[in-house]
Specification:
single chain; 416 residues; seven-stranded mixed beta sheet; four-stranded mixed beta sheet; 15% strand; globular
C-alpha cells in the first residue's frame, strides 16, 4: 500500500517524468460525466472501495450519483492542473501537503464546516489542510492520520519510559547481539528526514516557524535555531555510540528487527504485520520518549478536497456538503479507518478503533507535526535528510552543528 512517506518521495519526481506520465495518461482520461448531477471523485486504488462505500451512502441519501475514478496517487495532483473541465473531478482524495500548491494555483475551493463539526477534529489536523499567506482557509477534510512510532520487541528489552532508558537498553542489546546499531531507523545514502524527525523534534528542532497570523513562515528555518544547535552535540554522541547510522536503509532496518538483532524499530503502520511476525505478542508500539523536547513524529494527513471544477459543474454546494460535513463525521471516518487501516482524524472515531496496534499508533501521534504544506517544503527534504546522513555516517562524520547550519543556509538559498 502506498504510504505517505512513499507519496513524499513521489512528490519530488523530475518534471520530465511528470510530463511523460501526463502524456501517457492523456489518452485514458476519465470519460465525460454521464449526468448533470453526477459527482466525480478521483481516488487511488487502495482508497477507492472505501470511498465508493462511504460517498455512496451520502449520494443515496441526497439523490446524487457518485462515480469514483481510479487514479495513480501521484497523478491525482499532477493531472488536476491539466485535465479538461468536462473530465475533471469535483472532489479528490489526497495528501495534506498538496494543499499549498493546489490552493495557490486556484484549483481548490475553501470549506466552511460548522463549529460543531470542526470541534470533532483536532486543530493540527485542520491546520494540515489550511493555507493562506495572510488569512488561512480550510481546503480539505482530514480523515486519516499516518505516523511512525517506536516498535519494541519486549522479549529483548522493556518498553522505555525515558530517553535515557531507551538509550541504555538499545546499546545493551547492541552489545549482546553485535548489531551495527542500537535503534533500527532507516536513512540510507539519500537520507530520510521523515523517519529521523522524532529525533529532530526531540532535540527541539523545527522546520518552519509561524508568523503572527499563525501561518508557516518560510523565512524562519528551525534547522539552525539556537535551541536545536545547543542540543546537536547529542547527535555526535549517538554517532560515536552507533546508536543510529545513516548506513541503515529500509531493508537493513527491517532485517535487524525481524532477525532480533535490535529491540527497537522506528517505523509505521505499513510494517505492523512484519513486526507482529517477528515479535508476536511481545510487540508494543509507543512514541519515542522525550529527549530535550517531545519527540513528536511527522504526521501525514489524508483527506478530501473540493476542486474548482465542482463550481463549473454546478455541484459546488453538493461537493462541499459531502466533504465539509459528511466526511468529517464519526461514522464516515470509522468506516474509512477500518477499510484502510489508518487512524481517523475524528476524535470520536479514534476512540472507536479496536485494533491494538492501530490504536497504539494513534497514541504515538500525540503532539505530532503535520508535514508543512507550503510549496517551500520541497526545498527542505533533501537538505534535512542530508544533514542527518553527514552527521551519523560513522567515521568521518561531520559535526552535527555544522551539518545542520549548512543545510539551513542551503534551504534559505533555495527558497530565495
Amino acid at each position: 500500500m502506498l504510504t505517505f512517506r512513499g507519496r513524499r518521495v513521489a512528490a519530488v519526481l523530475t518534471a520530465a517524468i511528470a510530463l511523460v506520465l501526463l502524456a501517457v495518461t492523456a489518452g485514458s482520461a476519465a470519460p465525460n460525466r454521464a449526468a448533470a448531477d453526477e459527482l466525480v471523485i478521483w481516488a487511488d486504488k487502495d482508497r477507492k472501495p472505501a470511498v465508493e462505500r462511504v460517498a455512496g451512502q451520502w449520494g443515496s441519501a441526497r439523490g446524487v450519483e457518485i462515480r469514483v475514478v481510479e487514479k495513480e496517487f501521484g497523478q491525482i495532483r499532477n493531472d488536476l492542473g491539466t485535465v479538461k473541465a468536462e473530465s475533471a473531478p469535483d472532489v479528490i482524495v489526497g495528501a495534506h501537503d498538496w494543499t499549498g500548491e493546489l490552493a495557490a494555483s486556484g484549483l481548490l475551493l475553501p470549506l466552511n464546516p460548522s463549529k460543531a463539526t470542526r470541534a470533532q477534529i483536532p486543530g493540527y489536523a485542520l491546520d494540515s489542510f489550511s493555507y493562506g499567506t495572510a488569512v488561512k482557509k480550510l481546503y480539505g477534510a482530514p480523515v486519516a492520520i499516518e505516523n511512525i512510532g517506536l516498535f519494541v520487541n519486549t522479549a529483548l528489552a522493556p518498553v522505555p519510559r525515558t530517553w535515557a532508558a531507551l538509550e541504555r537498553s538499545a546499546l545493551a542489546v547492541k552489545r549482546r547481539t553485535k548489531a551495527p546499531v542500537g535503534i533500527a531507523v532507516q536513512q540510507g545514502a539519500g537520507g530520510d528526514a521523515y523517519h529521523m524527525y522524532p529525533f529532530f523534534s526531540g532535540l527541539c528542532g523545527y522546520i518552519f516557524g509561524k508568523n503572527k497570523a499563525g501561518n508557516l513562515d518560510p523565512s524562519d528555518i528551525g534547522l539552525s535555531s539556537r535551541r536545536f544547535l545547543a542540543n546537536a552535540p547529542l547527535i555526535d554522541k549517538w554517532n560515536r555510540q552507533r546508536l543510529v547510522s545513516s548506513k541503515v536503509d529500509d531493508s537493513a532496518a527491517k532485517d535487524l528487527f525481524t532477525k532480533k538483532k535490535v529491540a527497537f524499530w522506528l517505523t509505521g503502520p505499513w510494517n505492523v504485520d512484519t513486526a507482529k511476525k517477528a515479535a508476536g505478542k511481545r510487540l508494543r508500539i509507543v512514541q519515542v520518549p522525550k529527549i530535550r523536547c517531545r519527540s513528536a513524529p511527522f504526521l501525514g494527513v489524508q483527506g478530501f478536497m473540493v476542486t474548482k471544477y465542482a463550481s463549473a459543474h454546478n455541484l459546488e454546494s453538493a461537493a462541499k456538503d459531502l466533504v465539509g460535513d459528511f466526511m468529517l463525521r464519526t461514522a464516515a471516518q470509522s468506516t474509512l479507518a477500518s477499510a484502510n487501516n489508518r487512524f481517523p482524524a475524528n476524535t470520536q472515531a479514534g476512540k472507536q478503533v479496536r485494533d491494538t496496534y492501530l490504536a497504539a499508533l494513534g497514541r504515538a501521534s500525540a503532539g505530532g507535526v503535520p508535514m508543512p504544506n507550503i510549496p517551500q517544503m520541497a526545498s527542505v527534504w533533501s537538505e534535512l535528510g542530508g544533514a542527518w546522513v553527514k552527521s551519523t555516517k560513522g567515521s568521518g562524520a561531520t559535526k552535527a552543528s555544522r551539518s545542520f547550519r549548512v543545510a539551513a543556509r542551503n534551504i534559505a538559498n533555495k527558497i530565495g
